[in-house]
Amino acid sequence: MCGLAGLALATGQAPAATVLEAMTRALAHRGPDGHGHHVVGNVALSHTRLAIIDLVTGDQPLFAGPAALVANGEVYNYRELRSENQLHCATNSDCEPPLHLFRRDGIGFADRLRGMYAIALHDRAARQVMLARDPFGIKPLYLAEIPGGIAFASEPQALVAAGLVVPRIRPEALAELLQLQFTTGAETIFQGVRRVLPGETIVIADGAITERHRRAALPEGGPELITVEAALARLDAALEESVALHQRSDVPYGMFLSGGVDSATVLAMMARLNERPVLAFTAGFDVPGAADEREAARVMAASVGAKHVTVAVNEAMVWRHLPEIVAAMDDPAADYAIIPTWFLARRARQEVKVVLSGEGGDEIFGGYGRYRSAMRPWWLGGKAPRSRGSFDRLDVLRAPLTGWRDGIGAAEAAAASPGRTRLQAAQALDVADWLPNDLLVKLDRCLMAHGVEGRTPLLDTGIAEAAFRLPDALKVQGHTGKWLLREWLARHLPAAEPYRPKQGFTVPVGAWIEGVGEKLGPLVAAQPGVAEIARPDRVAALFRAAGGDKHKGFAAWHLLFYALWHRRHVEGVQTEGDVFAALSAR
Predict the structure, then answer these.
(1) What is the phi/psi pair of residue 280, to 5°?
(2) How far apart are CA 247 and CA 241, in angstroms?
(3) Are 300 and 257 in contact (CB under 8 A)?
């Protein structure tokens, strides 16, 4: 787990040392354990390291013949890749096998990698640079066309910090952010900054992209015929293999445990595979009436003998640290789960450098309520996912938000491939955009802000092969989603009470905002980013009513997030102090 950056310029162009240094400094939080660089001719690679595997010889860049590599992430099947391909590696690094596979297989080198990764390779002999990203998009990678070539980095803010990109907002992406809480597709919210798509490998030669290759995260085809017992046996084997691979580490690891099915599944399998007690971290909110998962998590942890650490989050903590939390989200996702995730990561870093979490369970196994709606035809009340935006019918903005669903619409068309059911298409839609551009960017930024590596064993190609093509009836039964996963959990961790109705993870931001709405609303309304899109009087009224209406609470949170985000990442204002100081500073 690290940060990477680089320049792939046209022939005759020389990378500027000051630019490379600025990008490296901007990514220092991603790799506090060391840094390295590779500069040859018109190409430069930079790396900041969080040492997890091969603490002695794993520094990067890694070299083999005329090729050099820097990577962010983990290749979990590195041992198997070595033995099966008879690779002669000079280090014990999990990232060296991809380097040798590249020399043998070229652009398809990443097709057999199992893990989370963003990789940059330079082949001096071929005069090419390759950029590759894992198929689920767990690890981020961005690029920008600049005068003389292409720049790339693990975070957009590194490109901005180096003066390679001016942080100008794309109106289409802003509409998406406000309505959906994340942005879709390859284009980011910054003009000129693009994502390397999940599963994509890009070839750059002479400062320009010349070739693309894409690896799918999900298997093709509709549901297969399989019995419940056969599906459970296959699932058990896939979970055991994935969690075992995701535990490969030369440093201590733990897990994030909620009261839900996904993290309970990870807990159950970790307890099976580890001789020592699992170390589990759970966040809760000290707010009367707020959904609090600490007790359910405590019961589950106790049932397997896990060491359980709780993190209490209160309103004062949120207002104090929210500017820092939002600052970490340079590719913005206005998901209020960034709040507990950031505090969990801060606490976990006191004991571990690696945590496993349950992200991806809903998408892979069919857990969201919107999937049940998507399964029904429109004449029976079915509707497309994300058909309503956060600001619909609120009359807060100066002008209606248009085109905000265009990206989702394009992804819907791509997800509905031949043979797939409505449920599979809805799952594939979320895997394409919601997952990498909201849930996984949240996990990446909040954990890397504290130098913690986040691993997601439910987002694994082996798990996808075992689960995505299950019959719809093994995913959704009546009002119950993730049926097969719940059935597995009922047999292996009954303390999880897996057939309880899905509670969902909520953060009481609406109530908190309303409690300080008289003060906070006008401050948010006065911010340049908000003032140009929203009517001040309506913003103030929205904040005063945020606690009594869920829809208004979401909208108020999105404006608060955007005000803080715009101040830091567009205006470039770095302030100290709480949310009120950050919004008041001039």
Answers:
(1) -120, 135
(2) 10
(3) yes
Handedness of CA 443, 448, 450, 454 (dihedral sign): positive
Task: Identify the CA nearest to 484 among candidates 313, 159, 320, 261.
Answer: 261
Catalytic residues: 2
Q: For 435, what's the count of Cα atoms within 13 Å in the CB-facing half-sphere?
A: 28
DSSP characters over 476-528: -BTTB-SHHHHHHHHHH-GGG-TTSPP------HHHHHHHTHHHHHHHHHHSH
Provide the token pair at 524.
């948010």
What's the token pair of residue 159?
Answer: 């490109």
The pLDDT value recorded for residue 154 is: 98
Estimate to the nearest angstrom the gap between the alpha carbon of 447 and the chain centroid.
10
Amino acid identity at 381:
G
- Cα separation of 504 and 525, whole Å? 30
Between the CA of residue 538 and those of 273, 522, 547, what are the distances in Å?
55, 10, 16
Q: What is the pLDDT of residue 502?
A: 62
Q: How many residues does the chain have?
A: 586
- Residue 530 pLDDT: 97
Which tokens go with 526?
Answer: 């006065």
pLDDT for position 575: 83
pLDDT score of 1: 61
**What token pair was written down for 464?**
């996808």
Nearest-CA neighbor of 5 among 33, 32, 39? 39
Q: Which residues pair with 280 in a beta bridge?
A: 255, 308
Q: How far apart are CA 156 and CA 25, in angstroms?
A: 13
Q: What is the dihedral of CA 335, 336, 339, 340, to 10 degrees?
A: -100
**Would you call 64 helix, strand, or coil by DSSP?**
strand
**Unique residue bearing structure tokens 């009470």:** 497
Longest dimension (CA), the chain: 68
Per-residue 3-state assignment (H helix, E strand, C coil) for 119-130: EEEEECCCCEEE
pLDDT value of residue 503: 60
Q: How many CB atoms lie within 10 A of CB 518?
A: 11
Say what the pTM is. 0.96
Residue 447: helix, strand or coil by DSSP? helix
492's CB contacts (< 8 A; 6+ apart) are 236, 268, 272
Q: What does pLDDT average to in each consecutive run of 10 residues of the chain (586 residues)?
A: 93 95 97 94 97 93 96 96 95 96 96 97 97 98 97 98 97 97 98 98 98 96 96 98 98 96 98 97 84 91 98 95 98 97 98 97 95 85 84 94 94 92 96 97 98 97 97 95 97 95 73 94 97 96 92 96 97 92 89
CA atoms of 239 and 224, how far apart (whole Å) = 19
